[in-house]
Amino acid sequence: MKRLVFPDAPLPFNRTRRQLLKDAAYFGVAAGLGLSADHVQPARAATLEGPVNAFTWGGRIMPDEVADFESQTGVHLNFIGASGNSDNLAKVKLGGGSQYDIVGVDALWVPKFYQEGVIDVIDMASWPQYADMLDQFKNMSIWKVGNMFMAQPWAWSPLVLWYNTKRIKTPPKSIQFLWDPELRQRIAFTRQQEDVIAWMGIATGAKKPYDMTKDELAKAKDGLSRLMPNILKFPPQEEELVKLMADESIWVTALSAGGALRIKDAGGPDVQGFLPPEGYIGYFDGDCIVKGAAHRDAAVAWLQHRVQSKYVLNNFLKYRRPLAYKGPLDVLQKEGKSALAHELFYDQPEILSKMVVIGPPPNIGDYVDAFNEVAGG
Amino acid sequence: MKIRSTFTLAPTWTLALFPLATLDLVFFVLPMLIMAVASVLVIQEFHVVFEFTAANYLFFFKNPLYATILAKTALLAAVVTACCLVISYPFAFFLTKLPKHVRNIMLVLVILPFWTSYLLRVYAWVTILGEHGLVNRVLMGVGAIDEPLRILLYNNYAVVLVSVYLYIPYCALVLYTSLERLNPSLLTAAMDLGAPPWRVFVHVMLPLTLPGIFTSFIFVFVPMLGEYVTPTLVGGARGMLIVNVVVSQFQALRFGIGAAMVFVIAGLTMGVILVLRRLAKLEEIFGGSQ
Which of A185, B180, B187, B234 has the fewest other C-beta atoms within 10 Å? Predict the structure, then answer.
């Protein structure tokens, strides 16, 4: 069986000389033609063992790129929808590499997955597509072990407080506008307890909103108690927030960069985004290779395949949040879509360092208790 | 002779039970056993310490919040069950009085909602009760209100309304079966002896249909204790029920506490069923019918 060599895959010592010469010729021709990263199709003419079981977030897998990958490699891609970081961790712990090859993980959860021993590091620096990655991700020390990466970065975005401009005439200047009595039952956040409490931490002056002290947590809890009259509900999915904003059941919510466009697409009103000066939550996410993945080579081939600029660009245009790769920015500028890139923060990666990054609080149980005591009381 | 036939039948019975018993064992008994063990072990995130503890249960009982949420859930379940019984009982009685062909059509109509997805049925209510939903449009259309009513959705009333709608078919079908078996001559005899209608209902009809009422109670009350989707979709910010709390414990990687809470709910359910069984003296009723 012929196997393609990937920089981070074990060396296939069982290759014949004929196979090695054939591969060398292929890469030689590719290099001679000066093919860019976009043109390097990692798995063409190679036989990889599949399927790739990708247990990751929605918004990752575009039908076109999957079809291309499958036709080029003959490997089928199984997409398994992920629901939450803690759920993912529990499932990967139980299922392991025999069930999952790739797992989608958010920001500060990545080191936790690594500490729990469920993911492997990847030698991304040697991948042709590495040059296209934003510097902020190349230097993301929390995701690195030496020069190796724990995850392949994908999307990122601050969570913007979107407000209905028809209903809220005065643009807010502070996060304290959420407590305005005029907003009674007009606010909704997703039911992510630790994120809701972290927002409250930002509003009540906590130093580390995802690692609050007991006093800070008490203040955050009090903030949530006072905010409850203004909260309509805590839906489990972002899509419901979009719907509630669209039919004007709520006037304020927290959504990622493309919130305004998503609300507009759902037939909603004009909304304006607000990044509070006190701070704001944000996320970046990535895909990790599961430790002992049964189809590791094919999984790596998939990760390399999907970061080609044309696919990243399509993903950006469809899901409307910035990604971790620079290539599409040039295309957007050439196509006169710089304003869109700016509106969605794609050309402002410096925001990454200003965000309060979503992560598992070390005392996550205290966060959940604080939320339950307010919402269940 | 009797002994021989019993022995001959034994393997057949065993084989017949095998598929269900296997399913039950693998997908119910085994997971419940694992949960039971998890509820009495020290578990720090994913790391199990093989040390028995009651701390997971004490966590629940020491914090009055969780008992309050459980009581709130039980109250909500009781209200929904009571509403279902009150609405379904006369409806089921009415069904038994219909000509057979009309009754069959009505029975199909009762089970018609099952042909659509459960989720879809709950979402349908969002479009009916929402701020821009059917009810508000009609009320505004006839000039009854100037602004849309916001009290129709995202609160406990909405949870009760939608749950009653969801569980009525179960309740109605069980009560219909019970009422259909009721011998009408017993009611006639009671009335012939001079009992007014309310007395016939309280002293004859109700006791004889108690097994049906009890079964309906189980069919509505028990699943309502574990209801997750309806409160999540139509409940408000304070609409947290006990299952939401259990889910939040698992999300916080507190597997031991989550497992303990599951068994507290199961204990409550069993307790309520046993008490009702005793109060309703079902043994006598079932025994009598045999």
Answer: B180
3-state secondary structure of B279: helix
Pick from A306, A279, A373: which is nearest to A155 by CA? Answer: A306
Query: For residue A95, what are the contacts with CB-CB under 8 A and spacing of at least 6?
Result: none
Name residues 171-230 of chain B within 8 A of A (Cβ). none
Nearest CB among A89, A228, A249 relative to B131 is that of A249
What's the CA gap between B155 and B46, in Å, rounded? 36
CB A361 within 8 A of CB A194: yes
For residue B66, the distance in angstroms to the closest alpha carbon of chain A comes to 8
Domains of chain B by residue range: 55-289
Domain limits of chain A?
Answer: 17-155+285-344, 160-279+355-375
**Alpha-carbon B162 to chain mean position:** 13
Residue B129: closest C-alpha in chain A: A249
Are β-strands A271-274 and A144-145 bridged in parallel, bridged antiparallel, or unpaired? unpaired
**ipTM score above 0.90:** no
| CB-CB contact of A99 with A51 (8 Å) | no
Q: Answer for the pair A107, A356: CB distance below 8 angstroms, yes or no.
A: no
Which amino acid, residue A238?
Answer: E
Question: How many CB atoms sit inside 10 A of residue B121's CB?
Answer: 16
Q: Which residue from B209, B131, B204, B126 is spatially nearest to B165, judged by alpha carbons?
A: B126
* pLDDT (0 to 100) of residue A236: 84
Q: Which residues of chain A have pLDDT under 50?
A: 1-45
Query: For residue A372, what is the nearest residue in chain B, using CA coordinates?
Result: B245
Does the domain formed by B55-289 have CATH 3.40.50.1820?
no
What lies within 8 Å, CB to CB, of A282 at 6+ separation is A156, A157, A158, A159, A351, A352, A355, A356, A357, A358
Mean pLDDT of chain A: 87
DSSP state for residue A125 in the 8-state scheme: G
The angle subtended at Cα A15 by Cα A14 and Cα A17, nearest 5°, is 135
Predicted TM-score (pTM) of the model is 0.82
What kind and span of H or E run contains B255?
A: helix B255-279
- The 8-class DSSP code of residue A133 comes to B
Class of domain A17-155+285-344 as given by CATH: alpha beta
**Probe site for chain B from A196, A233, A245 (most B CB atoms < 10 A):** A233
CATH superfamily of A160-279+355-375: Periplasmic binding protein-like II (3.40.190.10)
Q: What is the pLDDT of residue A11?
A: 36
- Pair of tokens at residue A62: 């575009």
pLDDT for residue B5:
52
Q: Do A375 and B237 touch (CB under 8 A)?
A: yes
The burial class, CB within 10 Å (0-12 / 13-18 / 19+), for B31 is: exposed
Q: Is the peptide bond before A51 cis (omega within 30 degrees of 0)?
A: yes
pLDDT of residue B18: 86
Query: Which residue of chain A has the CA closest to B149?
Result: A249
Q: Which two tokens stand for residue B162?
A: 């939608």
- Window from A5-9, A54-58, B114-118, B228-232 with minimum mean pLDDT: A5-9
Cβ-defined contact of B244 to A248 (cutoff 8 Å): no
